[in-house]
Predict the structure.
Amino acid sequence: MIPLRAAALHTAGLLVAFAAGRLSMPAPAPGVPGQSMEGGNRRTGPPSSLAGRPVRTAGETWLDAAAADAAAARGAARPGEANPLLVEKLGAVLTMADPEERLARWQGLMPLMRMEDARAVMTMLRENRAEGRGFNGENAVFWRQCGRMDPATALTWAKEGESNATTDVLGGWASRDSSAALAWVKAMCAHPDTELGITIESAPFISELMKGLAAQSPEAAVELLLANGDDPLFGSCLGMATDLVIQRGGITAALPWFSGIAESGAPAGFKTVSLETLLSYGNIPADGTAPSRKGEVAQTAARYAGEPWFSKAAARDLGTGMGETDPVAGAAVMENFQNAETREEFMSTFLSAWLTKDAASMGEWLNRNRTSPSFDLMASRLARWYLGIEDMKASGDWLDQIRNPDLKKELEQMFSAY
């Protein structure tokens, strides 16, 4: 058995990279799913006094301009007082037409914002939203920064309007004090705050907390997921670990990682979701040119078909994968399932995929394995398949070989209509 701690540490770096990346990577290019097009080419100006202010001088790269802006804003900060220069520069950033540069510049200035400055920035963002310029990415970064600095105040502000503000505040809070943030979420789930819209089904809250926690301590984030694999509060984000492994290392990294989880002391719920998530990636190539890794994914998953946490959903995906890539190996898995319903789910997709791939090879397998407990079921499927393509002789041959009298009678009645 692989120690639980080892499985957690294997994933730790992936979680922290993902969480940190949310704040450091530019926004996706226009047209990419998830990219807000709000404010793209429209005038998004801050107060009119800033409308003509250039955000970059001739020949200056945006990185140079960003560094200069940050240095100036840092120098203008005074303890206990709002920093009007920082607010001015943030306002100028919002006038930029390029969404990638705009978000990157905004991210660069946000760490300089203090709570003394935050109300003015919030007012500026809300004025833009009221005029139809949402700046979703910039809003998210703003609320996470507020959550890091003063979560109590930020949560109070979040009640005033923005639908996603609370989740972003929570992510920032968790990156600073994950224990307090988690305690708050659990308290809200036990006694929901209707103004914040929090219930135990509110998936974004715990998901955002996990991302924030990963930025603070990846080991703690992984261990928290593993330790709470059967807690409904965490159910919506258990697949995060598998997603991140695949995003960072591809299927090649995911297969041994999942085996480690499956053979560790991880909660059954965590294993189930990890398996289902892994199987869902079976058709996705490792890169843009590589062939599907469905066969390798299916072979890895098949080793655990006898486990009680192997779900019906996973069995369906496994059946398709084995039937399409290696049906003979799949036939060896048929009798491994502990649960009859799970086995039925596997058989339904497995036999369909095998028949579509090569019906003749199924017949050859049956001729070699006439004592198989699944012989009658498979022979009946073959008989139906041949009937469907109007090969009456082959259909009748397989019908004659069925030993179960009830099943045979049922098929004979069906075939009598032809």
About this structure: The radius of gyration is 29 Å.
